[in-house]
Amino acid sequence: MSMPLKDPKRKILLNAIRRQGNFTTNAAVDIVRPIRRPKGTYMSDVAPNSQDGKAKYIVCQSCLGYFSRNYLRRHRKMCSLRKDQSSDTRENHLSTAQLFAICSGQQKDFYESLRLKHEVFPIMRNDEISKVAMSDPLICSYAESLLRKHKRPQIKNVISNKMRELGRLLISIKTISGSQMMFETMKPEMFDHFVSATKIISGYDNENRTFKSGSLALHMGTTLKQVCDIASKLLIKKSNLVNCDDNELRLKEIKRLRLLIENHWNSEISSLALKNLNETQYNKPKLMPLTGDVIKFHQYVMKEAEEAKNNLNDEKTRTKTEYKRLTECLLSLTLLLNRKRIGEIQYLTLQTYLHTPLQNIQEEFMQSLSEQEKKLTKSFKRVVTVGKGSKPVPILFSQYMQQLIKILLDIRDLYIPKENKYLFANPNTLDKYLSGYHSVKKLADRSGVTNPTMFTSTRLRKQIATILQVLNVTDNEFEQFANFMGHTKKTHANYYRLPQDVYQTAKVSKLLLAINSGNAHKYDGKALADIELSDIQSDDDNDEPKTTTKKRKILVELEQNNIESPTNSQSIQNIKEMSFAPGKTNFSLDNNSDFLQKKKKVTNTNLPKEKSWTETQKSDIRIYFKKQIKEKVAPRKQQVMEFLQKHPENFKNKNWVQVKSYVYNCYK
């Protein structure tokens, strides 16, 4: 007040005092006096601060004035009390203003002690759901405990989603019971309200008994039990965040609520939600990228990478766009080669790639490898990073990919700040990485593949796991492959490996036909691939009358044995003219007795005579198929045929099925 009346600073300070008083008075009330008012209104007029679930007026954290949502960004650029006017980073003004308004209330000290304020709150959307979640101390305490449990910075997105789920739940409970805070709802009599609110936010259809979001309904019970544990912790510690007269009584109520959720949430929601999820899963078509599209996509990405590499090698055409283009191509090639989860690749740090520790390789392992496998171990670089559940996940880089990375590292200082630790860093960012999902999606759209939406890391992982079913892979090889993919054998078999319709129809139906024919014992020691359909009589053949089948067999055997005498020619004609109508089983073959005699002779001469195995044959088989016998794996048909070609004299009286059966019996 000591400043001259016309001093500009005096006016700025008076406005600051006025706005501070307005903010302090109305911070806890949903009524504000905005700085920019509609025409025809006065300073004494007040406005309700809500419109369609969104705050109509937002506070500026610098001058504490209230402005409309659409005008806040323009005001922030010219605010006289703003200190960081020259900031180059893009700011989300609405989220920042919401965070300031919430953290400046009565619980200011509580919010200052939270990591959430600096890591999770800034990325949350500015809407009523986030506001409710951020304003509730119990929800914030639960989110803070989740944040402490995890190490990777990407967990902040998961925690933000968890907070918004609880925020939506609390909003629904408000409409049902009127409870304003989550701690007030921690009572056993609120169990039915929790069930009803969960059904509302998960889109439950009471008529069809289905959920729009079955997964949300499924895991909400677990989330509520964890919230109960956090509430009990706050009561035991006598935290000032929870106000109650009798702590012991509230503890008993929370434990009873948790017991209700633990025992009855399954029958109320989880069981139905799980059934709905399973039905939706198997009714949904199981689509994967076609092999031809994968080849086409790979060729296109290689072409793009080569063009970007050439442009970066030339200083005249070297730009930030080309650097980002090559990084996106390299990220896509890494995903296509390794089929890893997209996060395990895009989160790979530069230090992890450069400082891969050397490992001592036993000579016995190297000697057991073929020459081609030894060359592969020298040409590929193996990098181990942290995957899901803090498991080690290896990533392979070919020589060509290593060359591309070297080009990027040579000019990295031109486009990537030193503070950015990621190998696939986003240019001109301090801590951002390129999004693998968007990079692959963009290249897939441009490559001209049949269905670009199929090119995701999950579908590519499912494709290679499904195709693996066709190969004859041992249990040891299968386990090694599952470890490389970063999951267990059970996860690989139950989640990633899809039961293909064609494979099931072709392979399993052949097994069923063999069993139904009553001759399953003939295929002892055979794999499904070794069973020939010609050995099995299908159900269609069994639908014909038996007399017709007999007639067909006689005609086929006559023609196959080339009986060309006039008598037999006449016999064939007589048989063709016979009546084999259903019910007429007694027919005369007196005129065809000569044919029957010759038929018996021919049939008897074609029967193979079983001969015992000689010691030489046994020795040759055991030596040649030593590896298969040791690993208890039946040899393939091609392997047996190669063996028979190498020993033609010793195995004149044996076919490939007999040899394979002998190998099977050796280790059985």
UniProtKB/TrEMBL annotation:
SUPFAM superfamilies: DNA breaking-rejoining enzymes. GO terms for biological process: DNA recombination. InterPro entries: DNA_brk_join_enz, Integrase-like_cat_sf. Keywords: Coiled coil, DNA recombination. Transmembrane segments: none annotated. Residues 295-322 form a coiled coil. This is Uncharacterized protein. The lineage of its organism: Eukaryota, Metazoa, Ecdysozoa, Arthropoda, Hexapoda.
